[in-house]
Design a protein that fits this description.
158 residues, alpha+beta, 2 domains, two-stranded antiparallel ribbon, 3 helices, 34% strand
Length: 158
């Protein structure tokens, strides 16, 4: 009788593990695969009648409770590794206003975590609205985390 209970618990745990794996983990990997295909299609799109650009919100925590923020509008599409969600350039390279391909940027030095998060998110949202008013359309939207965000936009050339 004791063994039946032990066997039932073991089978229940194994079933729960596989249910978790198939119900939650596999769809996530399918979304990542689809995201990779979408990104590759965007990178391969070299149609002369379209312009592409990237709007990026990047933040980093230097010390606990202190955040640095950056909203940058870049010429063309910034490459990203879809499996690791890592951009090609580091935070410092994006923060340099004189860097190649930087069309506009706004930066927050180390400050209160919540204040920088709120101010940078507002600036990012406002810039998206401005770009949409100029005819840009969001074609790929990837929030990395609560504080990092990547948008790819395109518009038809006049």
């Amino acid at each position: 009788m004791e063994y039946i209970f032990l066997v039932m618990c073991s089978l229940g745990a194994i079933t729960a593990f596989f249910a978790y794996l198939f119900l939650f983990r596999l769809p996530t990997s399918q979304i990542n695969a689809q995201m990779g295909r979408d990104l590759q299609a965007l990178y391969n799109d070299t149609a002369p009648d379209k312009e592409h650009t990237t709007l990026l919100l990047r933040c980093r925590e230097i010390r606990s409770g202190e955040l640095s923020g950056l909203v940058v509008w870049l010429e063309g599409l910034e490459q990203i590794d879809p499996t690791r969600q890592i951009l090609a350039k580091a935070f410092e390279q994006y923060a340099d206003a004189a860097a190649e391909g930087v069309l506009w940027h706004m930066k927050w030095e180390d400050g209160d975590y919540d204040d920088v998060k709120k101010a940078s998110r507002e600036a990012f949202t406002n810039r998206v609205k401005e770009l949409e008013a100029q005819g840009w359309q969001v074609v790929f939207d990837l929030p990395f985390s609560l504080i990092d965000h990547l948008l790819y936009l395109e518009r038809q050339k006049p």
